């Protein structure tokens, strides 16, 4: 693995993709995000391997990029405890290593999240965000317009969650919601005039409620992360033409039939 003092891997070194806690945090095929990153790196001539980091493992700080998927309340609590105890992820994020987190990963990386009995479970604290229940469960297609520099294509995924994630001043959203609810709003709260947003971007962390797997549906976002790993602008990456991905995006974007409408 590349060292923290030399974070940009070359073609003669192996890029390590840390799949965080896939034994408990990988609902709806979220472990596919690590596979997408590996494949897009390999197609460009880089050596890349996935490192599975389970509850039985220390969390290494030396991976070049990390991914984490979703899970239910008990899994979130276990994951938060493990990541706070084995603090390699803190070191990696502080060094600028990219981290992609999906759904429950959004919630547990925040300061705290509310669980089914109404109590607040301690989060990892890497994101300036908190999560409480929304009024009803969100299930369906999620489409957003990115608000992060370097991302221009619509973001698409599948959401299934009860959480309403509130961002603090140090966090910013990944996209503005066109279809679905994304971060939503807490039960009893009004939707802001600016509409709903999805995800959290803070430092080297990108988090979103989009399953799919997210990176299989969103190659531009995948390359946004790949470019950070390689230390180059995304525009300088060799283009990858994968017809199956083009067809997948077309089909999934067409499947989103219910644009969000703010009610009084």
TrEMBL record:
Residue ranges constituting the CobB/CobQ-like glutamine amidotransferase domain according to the UniProt record: 17-218
* Record keywords, A-Z: Cell shape, Cell wall biogenesis/degradation, Glutamine amidotransferase, Hydrolase, Ligase, Peptidoglycan synthesis
Involved pathway(s): Cell wall biogenesis; peptidoglycan biosynthesis
GO biological process annotation, one example: cell wall organization
Which residues are catalytic?
A: 103, 211
Q: Which domain of life is it from?
A: Bacteria
Q: Which GO terms describe its molecular function?
A: carbon-nitrogen ligase activity on lipid II; glutaminase activity
EC number, UniProt record: 6.3.5.13, 3.5.1.2
Output the InterPro entries linked to this UniProt entry: Class_I_gatase-like (IPR029062), CobQ_GATase1 (IPR033949), GATase_3 (IPR011698), Lipid_II_synth_GatD (IPR043702)
Membrane spanning segments where?
A: none
For binding substrate, which residues are annotated in this chain's numbering?
A: 137
Record Gene3D superfamilies: 3.40.50.880
Reaction(s) the record says it catalyses: beta-D-GlcNAc-(1->4)-Mur2Ac(oyl-L-Ala-gamma-D-Glu-L-Lys-D-Ala-D-Ala)-di-trans,octa-cis-undecaprenyl diphosphate + L-glutamine + ATP + H2O = beta-D-GlcNAc-(1->4)-Mur2Ac(oyl-L-Ala-D-isoglutaminyl-L-Lys-D-Ala-D-Ala)-di-trans,octa-cis-undecaprenyl diphosphate + L-glutamate + ADP + phosphate + H(+); L-glutamine + H2O = L-glutamate + NH4(+)
As for what it does, the entry says: The lipid II isoglutaminyl synthase complex catalyzes the formation of alpha-D-isoglutamine in the cell wall lipid II stem peptide. The GatD subunit catalyzes the hydrolysis of glutamine to glutamate and ammonia. The resulting ammonia molecule is channeled to the active site of MurT.
Assembly and interaction partners: Forms a heterodimer with MurT.
Family label: Belongs to the CobB/CobQ family. GatD subfamily.
The entry's protein name is Lipid II isoglutaminyl synthase (glutamine-hydrolyzing) subunit GatD
């Amino acid at each position: 693995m590349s060292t923290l003092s030399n974070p940009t891997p070359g073609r003669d070194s192996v890029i390590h993709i840390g799949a965080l806690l896939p034994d408990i945090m990988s609902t709806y095929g979220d472990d596919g995000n690590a596979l997408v990153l590996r494949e897009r790196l390999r197609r460009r001539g880089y050596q890349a391997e996935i490192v599975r980091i389970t509850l039985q493992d220390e969390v290494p700080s030396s991976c070049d990029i990390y991914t984490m998927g979703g899970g239910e309340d008990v899994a979130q609590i276990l994951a938060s405890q493990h990541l706070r105890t084995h603090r390699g992820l803190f070191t990696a994020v502080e060094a600028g290593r990219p981290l992609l987190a999906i759904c429950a990963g959004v919630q547990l990386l925040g300061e705290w999240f509310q669980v089914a009995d109404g109590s607040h479970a301690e989060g990892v604290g890497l994101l300036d965000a908190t999560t409480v229940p929304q009024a009803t469960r969100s299930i369906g297609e999620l489409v957003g317009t990115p608000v992060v520099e370097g991302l221009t294509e619509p973001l698409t995924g599948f959401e299934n969650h009860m959480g309403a994630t509130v961002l603090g001043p140090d966090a910013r959203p990944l996209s503005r919601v066109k279809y679905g609810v994304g971060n939503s709003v807490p039960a009893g709260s009004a939707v802001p005039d600016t509409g709903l947003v999805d995800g959290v971007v803070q430092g080297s962390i990108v988090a979103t409620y989009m399953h799919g797997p997210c990176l299989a549906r969103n190659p531009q976002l995948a390359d946004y992360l790949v470019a950070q790993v390689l230390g180059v602008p995304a525009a300088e990456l060799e283009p990858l033409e994968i017809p199956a991905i083009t067809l997948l995006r077309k089909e999934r974007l067409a499947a989103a039939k219910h644009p969000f409408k703010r009610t009084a």
